[in-house]
Amino acid sequence: MDVVWHTSRLWMGPLVKLATRARDYGRDRVPRTGGAVLAINHLHWIDVPLVGAFSPRPIDYVAKVEAHRIPGLGQFIRAHGAIAVRRGESDREAVRAMRAAARAGRVLGLFVEGTRQRSGRPGKAQPGAAMVAIQEAVPVVPVAVYGTQFWRPGNFAPCSVAWGHPIDFSSLAKNGRGYREATDVIERTIHHLFAWLADVHAAGRPKGVTPP
User: Fold this and answer.
1) What's 29's DSSP letter?
2) What fold characterizes domain 2-202?
3) Nearest Cα residue to 99 out of 210, 174, 28, 198
């Protein structure tokens, strides 16, 4: 699986970065070892390869089961470690797979709103990322993506990724209250990073700046 990831990054990464004029900020904050959850906002399908192109580690993305059923695409994303989830309902099998990935020291990638946001802004976070992190005692790295709300194939709209500091939620209870508290923190952090990226874009996307 990691071999597939690294092979794809050799050709897909440069293509995605070129098509989106991509820049990223703070990727050194991603833990180099051990399990972790990336909690990402979702504005466009290009978010998936964009974050993957910059991630220092392979990502086991969580993808809707409908994507897994598309001929060709399903096989492709499963080869890259994607976990299928049924949206809008309890999916214990998906939860077990997500927890197992984190427990095994993998980086789990979750688009926290559960679906793409047509508003062009991050939406309300769902508790999946917090639940996995609390249950498996792994950190959450909030990730904001900006610019993909304007991107279309061929328009080369600039897109950027900001990586937040890892957040340790191990002190919170392993129950609904703990998940809600952690989710509120994740949501606020992503919105803060997103607003920071908006300012960075307005300033011409200078290099070398550090996310909050």
Assistant:
1) G
2) Glycerol-3-phosphate (1)-acyltransferase (3.40.1130)
3) 174
